[in-house]
Amino acid sequence: MWRLQLLISPLRASIAALYDAIMTAVSSECNPCLRFNEISLIRGFLCRATFFSGLAGLLLAVGVPASAEDGYRLWLRYEPVEASLIEPYRHAATQLVMGQETATLKAARVELLRGLDGLLNAAPREVARPTQDGAIMVGTPRSSAVIAALHLDLRTAGDEGYVIRSVKVDGHSTTVIAGNRDAGVLYGVFHWLRLLQTHQPVDELNVLSTPHLQHRVLDHWDNLDGFVERGYAGASLWDWQKLPDYLDPRYTDYARACASLGINGTVLTNVNASALSLTPEYLRKAAALADVFRPYGLRVYLSARMVACKDGRDLSLHPGFRRLSRQGEFRRTARTPGLRALAR
Q: Tell me, what CATH number does 253's domain have?
């Protein structure tokens, strides 16, 4: 901490000196070339710089750790709950019962264990059937014979809905997180963890959640060169130059965040994106992202410019797009041979 103080002290002094010098200059009548707006911008910048350098010094003075929340983990931080809640929540998460594991159910298990480790500093023991109170059963009637034997009414849950119920299994208090499809189960796991994060009771649950919209999509205005149209938070998340060989861990975290909100689709490219996005080379890159996203119920879409085939006459466009252009429209890629990897 003292090293940071040594760095910040001269920084604050330099900013203060720069502030005095520029204020003297911009206030002088000998600087008619500086317009009022420019002077205001300079003053505003220097005031903010002075304020934040002073704030940094104040935080160091009172002993706040240098490492701070950077926002990367969003609402999935899983910070420890209040001390008074740790034991009740631990008693509600003593065992984990999973059936046959698919890629999506594995993602649900990993997320559940990650959340419990952060929130409670504890991990439930994985068992085949509940043998004590506090078991958590996760899955579908197809993946788990134990869940199938409960005969839960999942008819209104649909393909992506879920139920969270407090039940008795073999005489033991159990929480079951179930759905008709794996994606619904994953959404249910995020819901249950959210109850812990918001300090809600979890001993008598009777939750049914069903999406009201079939397509819940994020639309990215990203170009292949990394530029984001009307973007104000840096370059595109997709590193097309390194795909498909290198998969940034941020892609998985992006899919986790989407699944935690029930988002089930993402459009990777801007509507004005280059026709290169429709060539076999770039479709392989998009398919690599789809492979990362699929376990989280996140389907990949590409926006095709209506003049893409005209623009791409000298490009080796995927045959499916060339055929669709003769029909005068672009249909769902899932119906185009060779593109199903993006949508299945």
A: 3.20.20.80
